[in-house]
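EI: anyone free to look at a 190-residue chain?
SC: sure, send it
EI:
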Amino acid sequence: EPDIAVLKLLAIETRPDVRVKRLTQSQRMADLRLAKAYRYPDLTVAGGYSVQGPRGPDNQQMTILNFGVPLPLFNRNQGGILQAEVSVQVAEADLRKTMIQVENQVDISYRNLLESRRLVEAYRAGVLEDARLVFTIVERAYEKGGATILDLLDAARTSRTIQQNYIETLFNYQRNIFLLESAVGREITS
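SC: here you go
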């Protein structure tokens, strides 16, 4: 029987929805770093060489060097930084919410699996065999005249009902295995 803590850890590591939320959080952190980088102006440097007039020693030649620095007196990208910080907080909250939901899904699926396993074991431990035995006893009693046809039909109906319930319990057990594997995000071998 797998450990619930290990299953929760596996689910958080492998589930695609958690991975998407982590990637979204990482993207929002990168957006915040970019917004903080935008508060510093870009320095522009340009250079060149210019010749005026026809070629020769007497023409004017110029070397040009240009520096450009914008002065952000009122724009330090505070709005962009604040928006990016809020986006990071939203992404972190969304990731936490998704992780809690995943852990709850694993926990519920695990409990349902254990309960259905107990029911299957109870049927196998004696309920199924007891129903068959009761039917066999009533059938023999009927053959010897010790039971009525109604007793025989009632024993047959009870035996079939128990067998049908056992099959439904097996189905629920298999379904709960599938639901647990779906909650974890991978196949469980136990």
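EI: The chain has a mean pLDDT of 90.
SC: 👍
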